[in-house]
Amino acid sequence: MSTSIGVWIAAFLTLGIMSFLYKDNPIYKFCEAVFVGVSAGYWFVVEFFNVFLPKVYDNVGIAVNVLLVQGRVDWFHWSYLLGGILGVLMLLRLVPKIGWISRWPLAVVVGTTAGLWLINYLVSNAMRQIQSTIIPLYVAGDLNATIGSIILVVGTFCGLIYFFFSKEHKGAFGGAAKIGIWFIMITFGASFGYTVMSRMSLLIARMDFLVGTWLGLIR
Amino acid sequence: MKFFDRLLAIDRRIIFLFVIIAVTLPLFSKATLHIEVSPMVKAVYDAVDNLPPGSKVLVSFDYDPASAPELQPMALSFFRHCFSKDLKVVIIGLWPQGPVQANIALEDVFRDPEIKAKNLKYGVDYVNLGYMAGNEVVIQSMGSNIHTTFPADYTGNRTSELPLMKGIKNFDNIDFIYNLSAGYPGTMEWVQFAVDRFQAKLGAGNTAVQAPGMYPYIPEQLVGVLGGMKGGAEYEIIAKRPARAVSYMLSQGVSHAVIIFFIIIGNLAFFVTRGKKKTS
Amino acid sequence: MRKTLPFALVTGVGFFMLVQYFIPREEFEIVYEWSLDWIIVIGCFAMLLGLWSLTMASVHKVQRKTPGWGYSIITLAGLFFMLFVGLYPGQASLVRGSIFMLLFEYIYIPIQATMFSLLAFYIASAAYRAFRARTVLATILLLSAVIIMLRLIPLGPLSAINQWLANFILTVPNMAAKRAFWIGVGLGATATALKIMLGIERTYMGRD
Amino acid sequence: MKKIKSILFSFFLLLFLFNLSFPQESSDPRPPTEIKAFDTPNDNGHAITVIWKLSADDGKVKNNVVAYEILRSDSPEGEFEIRGMVPVGENLFEDKGAKEKKDKNYFPSHKNFYYKVRAKADKTFSESEVSKPAFAYGQWYHTGKTTVLAGVIVFSVFALAFINLAKKGKELYIRPLAGIEAVDEAIGRATEMGKPILYILGLGSAEMIATIASFTILSRVAKKTAEYQTPILVPCYDAVVMAVAQETVRAAYLEAGRPDFYKEENIFFVTSMQFAYVAGVNGIMLREKPATNFYLGKFYAESLILAETGSVAGSIQISGTDEIAQIPFFIAATDYTLIGEELYAASAYLGKEPVLLGTLKAQDWGKAVVIISLILGALAASFGFQFFLNLFRVQL
């Protein structure tokens, strides 16, 4: 059995969370409450050191320094202050009367990401996928590959037909859409099956921690 | 057949109980599951095995503790393989927790007497350059100069003063890149930036969820991929050093069998009860 | 000021981001890099907003003595202890071995990992409940999942066939459907982004 | 016989000696030729590209070239410094630097530079002539991105045209979608049962496409719940999302003429921690037993826990996300699932506003273009034409 206090605490928390599987209970709620507090604190501290300090504090510090020492306005570094001000405006959400000001930073965020995403989605989701689907249907001397690439192109085609909104799924069109949704279901099934292994890995590691690291029952 | 009706409305906790038994019991067993080695894993193994001694290998740790059960065994067996073949290892991380995971793996590998006997030196045989924020931009900038991308290593030593790094400027001086990835940034970015732009040679280990997404890149852009715990186990099998992943595979097999068993039972009950409803 | 300016901002900033993609000049590059940094900074402050909401929600529960208010005290205690240990001046919090990281390692990681591992149980019960061959579609979903899961179970001579089948599923139909999905999502997201930039889609801003 | 032997011997000896001296005498590889330097196209103006013709001893004849070194100077006679090295067989080098003046590797724009290329052998090397001067400058348009520009323009034209058409009152047909038709039924059911509706916006932040789509659907759903006077609960993961959701729902109640019925405390912040959030929402499901659960937006691993708990609580569940890895779990555990693009389309379905329907039509036309290019492209590729493929090849 382990003699480390850390391991004992970890084991207690592990069992506490697992007890939820039987039913909701005070020990689970205790662990959950600890988790909510600790994780909020953890991420805030990480964000403070990894984002706030290098991006805002350091840059504005340089700008102030340049102003005081050289008497020159360093626009580049001052601009980070503007980012910080937008961030502060976001907090005005908490003041009911002037809460609407927080729409400005929201607008900047939404506008920027919309512009970025328009391009990103069009390029990497649509165009790149088209590019990789344009393949020769016939591969000389390789029947397997030929069948594979034909199915690939037909599957993509039918899948796209399924996502058509303008036409009812009837007749030949409906047939193609049906094949499309079959392909989609195969994908979802496969993804489900694959995920089982991932999730089991996590559980195995946890159980190994409990019976091995903590109780020392294995090896 | 009331039995089947009750089976259909079975309490979830009974299924939970079966799962926990299926996972835990095999941990006590010394038996191992027969594991078929897939060509994708073999390809990665061969790529490393064929490197001449002294070759430089870059390993990027792009995961955090949440995915460690799947990826940590891959890191271990890869390090073991590299060190036993006298390859030089450069470690980086695009995830903040990655280099920490690398250090944990190194500690474990050095416990192995065979590796310990080699008396490997930090800075000469391996280095850990730590985490760098910036995702794919980091890869891009490593393509021109690793020293400016990572000015200092994990513990703050200047990169340019590490003997191993003196001969490494960019991807041209790296013979093989191995990427352990649990999402973004990860293998996709390494393919798009290190391989597509700088013609690096890349192998990868991925979580089971992510691995199928990499298949289209094999073999041109990606040598091969280890998918989840099974991929890790296969690597251990070819390396003839069965370790953690292999020992866990029995639990995997039994728990999968339990799930499939429940699916079959569920369908059986479903058809029996439905058949009865139709006749009555 | 309340309505017009935000939408003008959205359109202006959005079109700049769109246009800069096609212009490689460094002036545009610099502004582009700034705006990405700004977004990160704004997100950092939004986190403060979340922290505040969490604190206030917990304080309210304690004040009103709503059922389970004791747990809110535990949450607050955990939160402020973490903040104190992490932000206490003159020490490196994010280095392995610090008190902050020890708390992370022995409290945060085990709980998070266990929460994640609960998914193993839920995935089993979902498979049992939902994977019934009711319709053609359900049957396809079920079969494809079972074929992939069977890869982990030794089946003797059948293993080779199953291995081939699993590989085929992953490389052919899987790829085909994913591509169709991605192309659809790509066009849909492009359309939504366009609607946002043109000011057609404006629910997200709230209404007065 | 002996003579022949000695002749042969001296012949071999000569050959041997000759051979020994041969590599030393002419070990210099022949230099690269036709060196050209020019501004790197489509960049920010801090790089020059150098090309040359390979040394005659690269891979053939003496075959002793091991690499090329590229040297730069700011005058043809001045001192040249090494800027980089490429392996044998390559005849292109991009001399690229940073745009910041402070950077060690700063590369000035609008300044003339001269280049030469060195073919390196084992110990020796030979140099090409000095190139004509070249300077770096930034471009106003990236020619490699024309396909994307065309795509953006075509798509925008489609969208604007259809919005216009719809505004003029043209009936635009869209096929029925099961998940959408279930929305009304689900709200009706909640009213009959006298139980609330639970609406989850997912884990996305306010600017994500999926979240924005979900806001619009929330607005329609809230309007209907206001009409039916069924309470709607919206537990939020993100503080900004919560604020927006409050305004959205308030506006919907106002629109339905029931502002008195709006309760702000029903749209509340839980926490921004994935599993803690799940635990909180699970508690609500088990306590309140909502008649209907909506999960629309960005979802990750928590999707399954939410949907499983909801189904145990006996609620009707409608889900939708663009996160492909989570859709299988929604399909398995909820009653209706909007798959990817269907989530974005849902707002148009529920609102039937001309502008929204117009963009939906544009999406369909976009798909039609994709399908046609796919078929033509695959056929062209089968017959060995690369034209179509090159059309979609985008430079970054």
> Main β-sheet of chain D, in a few words?
6 strands, parallel
* C-alpha Rg of chain B (nearest Å): 23 Å
Which strands sit side by side, in order, in the main sheet of chain B?
3-2-1-4-5-6
Query: What is the H/E string of chain D?
Result: HEEEEEEEHHEHEHEHEHEHEHHH
Structural class by helix and strand composition of chain B: alpha/beta
Give average pLDDT of chain D, whole number.
86
The CATH class of the largest domain in chain D turns out to be: Alpha Beta
User: Structural class from helices and strands of chain D?
Assistant: alpha/beta
Q: Which segments of chain D are poorly predicted (pLDDT under 50) over 5 or more consecutive residues? A: 21-25
Quickly give the CATH architecture of the largest domain in chain D: 3-Layer(aba) Sandwich
Question: How confident is the prediction overall: mean pLDDT of chain B?
Answer: 88
The number of domains of chain D is 2
End-to-end span of chain D in angstroms?
Answer: 75 Å
CATH architecture verdict of the largest domain in chain B: 3-Layer(aba) Sandwich
Proportion in β-strands of chain B: 5-15%
Query: Under CATH, the topology of the largest domain in chain D is which?
Result: Rossmann fold
Strand line-up of the largest beta sheet of chain D: 10-9-8-11-12-13
Number of helices of chain B: 12
| Number of strand segments of chain D | 13
Overall strand count of chain B: 6
Proportion of residues in β-strands of chain D: 15-25%
Describe, in short, the structure shown:
The complex is a heterotetramer of chains A (219), B (280), C (208) and D (396). Chain C has 208 residues and is mainly alpha-helical. Helices cover 77% and strands 0% of the residues of chain C.
Note down, in words, how this protein is organized:
The complex is a heterotetramer of chains A (219), B (280), C (208) and D (396). Chain A has helices spanning 5-18, 26-70, 75-91, 103-133, 143-162, 171-214. Chain A has 219 residues and is mainly α. Chain A has 2 domains: 1-94, no CATH class; 135-219. The model of chain B has no long low-confidence stretch (mean pLDDT 88). Chain C is mainly alpha-helical. Chain C folds into 4 domains: 1-87, no CATH class; 89-130; 131-171, no CATH class; 176-208, no CATH class. The two termini of chain C are 13 Å apart. The model of chain D is unreliable at 21-25 (pLDDT under 50). The relative contact order of chain D is 0.10. By secondary structure, chain D is of the alpha/beta class. At the A-C interface, α1, α2, α3, α4 and α5 of A face α1, α2, α3, α4 and α5 of C.
